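Hi L.,

You mentioned the student needs an example of a multi-chain input paired with its predicted structure. This one should do, with 942 residues in total across all chains.
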Amino acid sequence: MSVVAAIAAAVACAASVQFGTPVDRALPFLGVVLVALDAPLALLPLIVVENVIVDEPTRLLAIGIVMAAAFVRGERTSRPLVVTLLAVLVLRWIPFHHVVLWRELIILAGALGVAYVMNGATLAVLLALFSPAWPAKVAVMLFVVAVLAAFGLRRVKSSGGMAAALLGAVIAFFPWSGVMARGWTAFVRPPWQGTRHEVRYALPPGTTMTLDVPEHASALIVSGANMQRLPCGTVAGWIDGRPVTAADWGFMRREQFFAARNCYPRDPAGRIRDYGWSSWIDGAGRVLLPSGAKSVRIAVNPQLPKNALLQIEAFE
Amino acid sequence: MIVAAALVLLALPFVFFRGDALVRALRNEAALYAFAVAVWVFTRTVAAQAFDPYIAIVLIFVTQLALIALQLSTTQQLNNPATRFALAAALIYAVVLPAQLRSVIDGDEPYYLLATESLVHDHDLDLTNQYRDIARSDTGRPDLVPQQGDPTGPHGEQYSRHEPFLPLLMAPGYALFGVPGAIATIALFGVLLVRSLVRWLEDEGISDATIRALMPLIIFGPPVLFYSVRIWPEVPAAFCFVEAVRGVRQQRGQRWIPALFALVMLKLRFVLIGVMLVPFAVRGRNRLAAGCALAILVLPLVVVWRISGSATNVHSWHELVPVAPLPYVKGLFGLILDGAAGIAFQAPLYLLGIFALARWKSMPEGFRLGAIASLIYVVTLLPRAEWHGGWSPPLRYIVVFIPLLALGAAALYEQSRAARAWIGPIAIWTFGLTVFGIAQPWSLFHIANGENAIGESLSTLFHTDFSRLFPSYIRPNFAAIVAAVVLVIVFFLPRIRHAEIIAAVALALFFHFGRLPGNRIEFEDAHVIHRGGELYPYQYQVARFLYRGGWLMKRGDSLSFLAKRGPYVLFYASTEPATIDLGGRVFHLDKAPNYTMTLVDLPAGGQVTLRCVDGSINLDRMDRRD
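Structure written out for the whole complex:
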């Protein structure tokens, strides 16, 4: 009967999909997850949210909150292995077409191993959330260590109210689980965008150029290309003689993040891109201009690697 | 108010829990606050649409209440639940009361308050000077005028049609604290109602676990919550009803005599309850009790006669005479299923109380006694055009029986697995209504045009007719027939499994069909995009539901709506010949002082525009002909 219920839930959710994001399209899968967690009641707000909330971030956040409530309940009533399996699928397998199956199966197996040893889902889910899939050997090693450590931590309570709340908090933001795992500083310093005047220059090392500052512009939006290996604080160039640091534009992508040595910009100006485990924030940062400046002189550090570029994205 | 709400939420766990349970409750509260902060921060991170902070606060407040309710349902034991729930009600009503005062008092409320002002300031019931100086009244309604048919005295005195007992009760509170004091009096009755109801449930053998599971939905949900913080006689009446029935059951004259007296004094219509209850109260040859009962039933008639010159006030004895059966059917299903004014949509918990009637023999004796006592009242209410309550929060005329329905719901909850399975969806819906009513108190009043707040919101959002999917017995539609059939089936076959899945599939179908065009276009409805013109009759027309609503258009006005292609019958009225352009086709319509119909044709489906090219016209509706 549960299978019939799961199919009915999936069909009801599939019929409700109104938007094209991977999270919206995963609604039938989320419906099945709710039935598997024995929380079919959550199907009702899930369907309502999908149909009623037009604003994308608000809708996805609302979907996350509904799922979180179901997982909080499930953490108490369902078996840890089931909860872990479902939580890892929700956190890491959306969007499904981005999933590299063998890498994710390694992480899933590791998470289930930790959950089995700990007899609780929360720690396993947290490990799964923060585990890199690139390079795979790190993921494997991490989970071997985790499973071994879990034997030692078995006495630590991995279930109960706080554990459930922690699990819920993680699941609530699953539509941006990638940002949560790789760019948690965005919670402290959220990126924002003002009115922009696009420039779009990509300057190789040693280049200098002068740009006229548009009226009312107060900042320059910069980022790097091929710079992910450079450590934090590396001077990428100078603007009117003042040193400028820039993070690689894509250093928070899941494939690049583990190898990258960049830092999240101090004054972030990037956008959240993609969804689920694939979501990331581009490394654009904001450099304030001297007040009243009519033009700025930009010089790119000649010491940068040959293929590195300093990208002048826009005035703001 | 935010601080007050936070303090109340902090205090509530101390009312219900001790030891580990208390720690858990406080931890849950703290976790929810932390989570709310995290969500708020994250909304900035992902640049989510700005959310109305007031609604957000209400949402957090009600979610905290829901968490406490959830924990209560799983708690092992609760000592002295009547007092604890009453204390919780007092705390909650103290916070919700100022929230309701964000909008001016409405419906009959200003009239009750005006009578209270008169009692306090002039020590009389003559409202002439109150109406004269209405701008200085605390009602906040400078537009207030006497209601049609209000009684007048021989020397030009102006009285209110409403019985003076409620103003009398509110007078001390009003004298001390003004309008909040007057409403606090009602809230006090709400607290007393909660206490009495828990006692009654206990008396009737309802288990502690059931009381813990259901009472939060009763206290924190409509209609008790909203009628407890507004000026209506319904909640005091519900309290008196419970006490009267309890007194009769216990054969305690000290309980039922004052309760019944207060009940019938609150509103003349409650005499109909007294008439049915008295034979059960007066047993044997207790002449004193019989005399008291007779006096109780006669006294309100005398009071009303003294004020208005008629023992029935603005009513007539003819209202008690049975009429044709159809209005009874409409009223009965309307009270249960109507989207705007029915129990199923406005207080779904009490739907279980209706289903409890199907298990008459296994219901507690108090339930059966109460149901019998309500019989004449309900039968008299059903055929009335105003069965839905008119300009008031939903379920006005049956709030008095809410304790009775609560008892039935509780008994059914204990006896039926199906009833327990439905409690989840019911709880979600109930707390949703609570959020809605606290966040937008003015929305509790509706013009009774056949739509409801959800239907209107969805119709406005999608510009398709979602309202047609809600059963309406005010403006009967096809959904009303379907809902009535489903109710009858469920009534006799209450064993339903996988309630949540069924509800989810139904919800998905609802949203699917809601986006498709219907076969009827009501031009005044929210899904129609109006560009010019005005509502007919205007929104605050007294007894607007008695009129055939429509949309008045004059030359240059237009409206658009989603429709299927094909032939339609257009219903309209017009004081002069009019010309309209419907989807690119021009129609010349004759003058029609009374509503008439004409055939029109839509060459193509989709979003259709109707323009008034010449003259003026009152458009009622358009029905598709297959």
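You could point out the following to them. Residues 216 and 316 of chain A are 8 Å apart (CA to CA). Chain A touches chain B at residues 1, 5, 8-9, 11-13, 15-16, 31, 35, 40-41, 43-45, 47-48, 51-52, 54-55, 57-58, 60-61, 65, 161-162, 165, 168-169, 172-173, 176, 179, 186-187, 190-192, 272 (CB under 8 Å).

Best wishes,
N.
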